[in-house]
Amino acid sequence: MYGHLPYNIATPKGALMARSQAHKRTSAKSARLETRITAEQKALFERAAALSGRSLTDFVIGSTYEAAQRTLREHERMILAGDDRKAFVQALLKPAAPGPRLRKAVKRYKRATGL
């Protein structure tokens, strides 16, 4: 395969590890997070952790970390569809003329700042 997969990084010995595991290695662990879950949820998490070859703690931290990163990426991106995209581009290319309130605010600003 060419290069590294985005979710894996190379260790000094050349082996691959999940990015969440690498993050844990380089960060000092001083904060604590506790939560209450149902017995069914715990059993599910334990089973998934065992299948992935990780401890329950590593599985929960890694999965939560990845979900948090994904959520932040999704909310940091602006996705516009058809008509919305056209309206956005039009607003950039031909902005609306300033209204009376904006002109008044600019005059106040210029008086206050001496411009």
Provide key terms for this protein.
single chain, elongated, mainly alpha, 60% helix, two-stranded antiparallel sheet, 115 residues
Structural class: mainly alpha
Q: What assembly state would you assign to the polypeptide chains in this entry?
A: single chain
**Average pLDDT reading:** 82
SSE pattern, N- to C-terminal: EEHHHHH
What kind of sheet is the major sheet? 2 strands, antiparallel
Alpha-carbon Rg, integer: 25 Å
Helix content: 55-70%
Q: How many separate structural domains?
A: 2
Distance between the termini: 61 Å
Number of DSSP-assigned strands: 2
Proportion of beta-strand residues = 5-15%
Instruction: Tell me the number of helical segments per DSSP (H or I, 4 or more residues long).
Output: 5
State the shape.
Answer: elongated
Strand arrangement, major sheet: 1-2
Characterise this structure.
The protein is mostly helical. The chain folds into 2 domains: 8-29 and 36-76, no CATH class; 82-113, no CATH class. It has 5 helices and 2 strands. The protein has helices spanning 19-26, 39-52, 56-76, 82-93, 100-113, and strands at residues 8-10, 16-18. It has a two-stranded antiparallel sheet with strand order 1-2. A hairpin with a 5-residue loop joins β1 (8-10) and β2. α2 (39-52) packs across α3. The longest helix has 21 residues, at 56-76.
